[in-house]
């Protein structure tokens, strides 16, 4: 999968995303630049653990070949090594004639940490301390969680907190996320933590599986009250290709129509969209 590990005993890992590399060659940045002003080439995509308590059909991670984790490493080990591991991961761009030299220099000092690579970060016991250390360094932090661990989320203070909503109801949730236990009530509890803070609900639409009942999504979103809602299409990449087919990838128009149905039944409104990433961002009406 191209992950660089912080320690051989731990599954804490970093992998620059495609948009970071594209930005380094002077190309376009990812939709988070468009929606939230994040510079892709200064963003480090990490996870403090690859362990997860769900087996989502749409996940790009392999469930068959899990990376064994002997222990969790301390937050300061992750923070102190981050810049050097990102530098190692992007080393080829130092000598590439295609690289933008200014952006390359900037990329050596990441100022945005996306805790979203793979795995469920709330299973890392010292997640609040890790985020606080990044915050203290002046970095923005995006935490993406599956919402199964509300007590841990309560203790975390990221710049922007994401909770994934994989389904409009419990039955669909159990079928698509295939969790170790039924965590639906815990996810609803996590969603209730999103109002009055910079936050987003992420919905990954898988055609024919969870793209029904926009009214239920709207009700759950309305109850939670996050600042943003990202409705994103499933991408047929990684190990998800073994579980789903290309026909499960919705076209952008279908995603937009679904997002607009949510708007019609809630106090959210269209904010922006990115056709390449097949994502529509909704915002709570002011
Ligand atoms: S919760 Fe996230 S990491 Fe875990 S299986 Fe689902 S998509 Fe993958």
Q: What is the H/E string?
A: EEHHEHHEHEHEHHEHEHEE
CA gyration radius, whole angstroms: 18 Å
CATH-derived topology: TIM Barrel
Q: What top-tier CATH class fits best? A: Alpha Beta
**How many angstroms does the end-to-end distance come to?**
42 Å
Structure summarized in a few sentences:
By secondary structure, the chain is an alpha/beta fold.
Q: How would you describe what is shown here?
A:
The chain contains 10 helices and 10 strands. It is an alpha/beta fold. Helix 9 links the parallel strand 7 and strand 8. The termini are far apart. 44% of the residues are buried. The model has no long low-confidence stretch (mean pLDDT 94). Iron/sulfur cluster binds next to loops.
Show the helix and strand layout:
Elements: E1 4-5, E2 13-14, H1 18-24, H2 31-36, E3 43-47, H3 75-89, H4 101-107, E4 112-115, H5 127-136, E5 140-145, H6 150-155, E6 160-164, H7 170-177, H8 184-191, E7 199-205, H9 214-224, E8 228-233, H10 252-264, E9 268-274, E10 279-284
Parallel strand pairs: 3-4, 4-5, 5-6, 6-7, 7-8
Antiparallel strand pairs: 1-2, 2-3, 8-10, 9-10
Bound molecules: iron/sulfur cluster.
